[in-house]
Design a protein that fits this description.
The chain is 59% helix and 0% strand. The chain is an all-alpha fold. It has two domains: 6-35, no CATH class; 45-96. Helix 3 crosses helix 5 and helix 4 (66-73) packs across helix 5 (77-96).
Length: 97
């Protein structure tokens, strides 16, 4: 997210009205609800975690031990179990469609 000078994007009258409430401070204007993005969409973090979780699940299916996966991915064994459980559900949903 970058900052924009209000004078470059808003009419002068609106800038002056806003200054009555927030004079010289930073003001965050959220996106319209229908245009909001989910966490990680811009940075690619969401896709990276999805790929990582799929990889963990595939290794588990091929016989990898949960504690070894936890060490390899720097996660707790509880997190690995949660990922495996989530991936099982995803695969069940894909296969039943």
């Amino acid at each position: 997210m970058k900052y924009s000078n209000a004078y470059n994007v808003l009419p002068v009258d609106i800038v002056r009205m806003i200054q009555e409430y927030v004079n010289g401070e930073y003001l965050y204007i959220p996106r319209k609800e229908e245009q909001q993005k989910k966490w990680g969409e811009n940075s690619g973090s969401r896709d990276a975690l999805k790929r990582r979780n799929e990889e963990i699940y595939q290794k588990y299916l091929k016989g990898a031990v949960i504690l070894d996966l936890a060490q390899e991915y720097y996660l707790s064994d509880k997190s690995i179990r949660r990922i495996i459980s989530q991936q099982k559900k995803i695969m069940l949903n894909i296969n039943t469609e």
